[in-house]
């Protein structure tokens, strides 16, 4: 199936899920949401229906897919990297087991398309720069481990059952709503501090940087790969890259926009050691070849869009 009229988004009340749901709804697609109780937002007119529950609840998930018959599933629900090390068993249950169960249910009810977001954290810290598309994945945290597990199971179902599994591996994402608990999201946190008139300490050295994408490009990439003809999807998963910048470059850019912004550099060894092993550039040749992917946001216009968004939010 190359088109769909009904889509289910797990984790749909999160920032990425809501923004993506708006795009689908604007295209006339009926969008369903599954997320935890208490995650609802006001005026969610882009969802046809919101189901509240745990993605680990196999009976609930089975009932939703059976009754609603979505033609596409966008599986965004997961524990993020910062919280994945706290409880390894829980992380495996949510990020791996629940994902595998959802894919099996999707196969049983012949869901046309299944999208799964992955990460370059699946490669671990001992990478090459630029990162080749065929580089071996040896993750060094539980978040990356579960992502690899789901990638492999999705690819297995694609090979054995004709399952339309589509996967994108994202680098660091520059987002106005980056969780404050996400240590590696310090570029987003620095932008927020500058917009609010606060000082900021970068938890990395001045010259430390890595591959990055702006949130709007992330959303657009999911939309574009989901609409690409199935015959064009030749890779089990696609690596994406937007741009690269260092902590020093970001500090200088924010200082240019906000002359009163004060910042410093005091490396946190945990963050520094994680970031420094990740590549500055991720090769995304296959995405360009197969479905014409091209990022729209570079460093300059990403920061501009980021600060405009944060300024609008801080006014309310």
UniProtKB/TrEMBL annotation:
GO molecular function, a single term: L-threonine 3-dehydrogenase activity
Domain NAD-dependent epimerase/dehydratase, first and last residues per copy: 7-234
InterPro entries: Epimerase_deHydtase (IPR001509), NAD(P)-bd_dom_sf (IPR036291), NAD(P)_epim/dehydratase (IPR051225)
Gene3D superfamilies: NAD(P)-binding Rossmann-like Domain (3.40.50.720)
Pfam families reported for this sequence: Epimerase
A GO biological-process term: L-threonine catabolic process
Entry similarity comment: Belongs to the NAD(P)-dependent epimerase/dehydratase family.
Protein name (database record): NAD-dependent epimerase/dehydratase domain-containing protein
Organism name: marine metagenome
